């Protein structure tokens, strides 16, 4: 079927296949890059901010712990300064937890947030108890609280936040691994498509080129030169063709030149014969004329 196509159809088909493969490569690259960009955007705008917010909560918890310690150590204005510094840190925790509640959608993440909320309530209760004992200057009870319930609730609170950070870190690592796998798969697919496009284009180009050369019987420049010499009337040229060539343009031209040469030879032979006959007729006419003259004289 392909061999019977016209040259324009063959060239058009070859370019169409090549362009189609290039389009497939372009679309594949675009879709894979878009998916990779979405994955990276998810890490930058979602998972990483959650980790930052959780770390902000830990920093605020540690700041509160230092202020409680300072309030126990100091007295007077310095003690009050430490107590006043606790409320802003609680607000920081509240703000960051609110952000986390808005952005965490997975069931696992929501469960971790619930644990954090429970741990926070217990720790805040211990803080309030600490501040109440501090107002009555019950230092012995404060020491017991600090070594017991306050330490435990703070540790549980920190552990719940750390669990959320670990969860988000694992999600980021998973996203990074998926992104790496996606890049590797995209590279492999693009390489395969590129190799297929190259090989297929080369095969189509080779088939079309061989088809054209077989139809011409040789290089286009050589065929053009032969046609030009034939148009100029040169029948002495020798058209070179391939050994098994019986259907190309050059083969047909070679046969045409041979036949034209035979025709010209035959015409030339006929012309020479005609010239000889004309000479004989002329000689006969002269003889008759002479004989007529002699008879008339007689």
Structure characteristics:
298 residues, 8 helices, mainly alpha
How is this structure best described in words?
By secondary structure, the protein is an all-alpha fold. The two termini are 90 Å apart. It has helices spanning 7-73, 76-84, 86-103, 107-135, 139-147, 149-216, 220-231, 249-297. The model has no long low-confidence stretch (mean pLDDT 82). It is built from 8 helices and no strands. The longest helix has 68 residues, at 149-216.
Topology record:
Elements: H1 7-73, H2 76-84, H3 86-103, H4 107-135, H5 139-147, H6 149-216, H7 220-231, H8 249-297
Helix pairs in contact: 1-2, 1-3, 1-6, 4-5, 4-6, 5-6, 7-8
Provide a concise account of the structure shown.
The chain is mainly α and 298 residues long. Helices cover 88% and strands 0% of the residues.
How large a portion of the residues is in β-strands, by DSSP E? under 5%
Element-by-element helix/strand order? HHHHHHHH
Number of helices: 8
* Rg of Cα set: 51 Å
């Amino acid at each position: 079927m392909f061999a019977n196509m016209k040259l324009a159809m063959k060239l058009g088909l070859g370019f169409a296949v090549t362009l189609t493969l290039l389009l497939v490569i372009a679309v594949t690259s675009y879709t894979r890059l878009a998916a990779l960009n979405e994955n990276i955007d998810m890490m930058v705008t979602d998972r990483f901010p959650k980790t930052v917010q959780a770390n902000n909560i830990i920093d605020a918890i540690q700041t509160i712990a230092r202020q409680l310690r300072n309030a126990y150590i100091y007295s007077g204005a310095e003690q009050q300064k430490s107590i006043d510094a606790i409320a802003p840190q609680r607000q920081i925790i509240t703000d960051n937890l609110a952000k986390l509640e808005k952005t965490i959608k997975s069931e696992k993440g929501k469960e971790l947030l619930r644990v954090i909320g429970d741990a926070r309530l217990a720790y805040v209760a211990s803080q309030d108890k600490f501040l109440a004992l501090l107002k009555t200057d019950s230092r012995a009870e404060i020491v017991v609280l600090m070594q017991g319930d306050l330490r435990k609730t703070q540790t549980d609170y920190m552990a719940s936040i750390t669990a959320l950070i670990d969860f988000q870190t694992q999600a980021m690592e998973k996203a990074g691994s998926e992104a790496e796998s996606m890049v590797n798969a995209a590279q492999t697919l693009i390489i395969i498509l590129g190799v297929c496009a190259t090989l297929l284009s080369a095969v189509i180009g080779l088939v079309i080129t061989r088809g054209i050369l077989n139809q011409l019987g040789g290089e286009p420049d050589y065929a053009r030169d032969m046609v030009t010499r034939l148009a100029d009337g040169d029948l002495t040229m020798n058209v070179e063709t391939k050994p098994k060539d019986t259907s190309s343009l050059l083969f047909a031209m070679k046969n045409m030149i041979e036949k034209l040469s035979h025709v010209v030879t035959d015409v030339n032979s006929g012309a020479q014969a005609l010239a000889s006959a004309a000479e004989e007729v002329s000689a006969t006419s002269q003889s008759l004329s002479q004989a007529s003259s002699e008879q008339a004289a007689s």
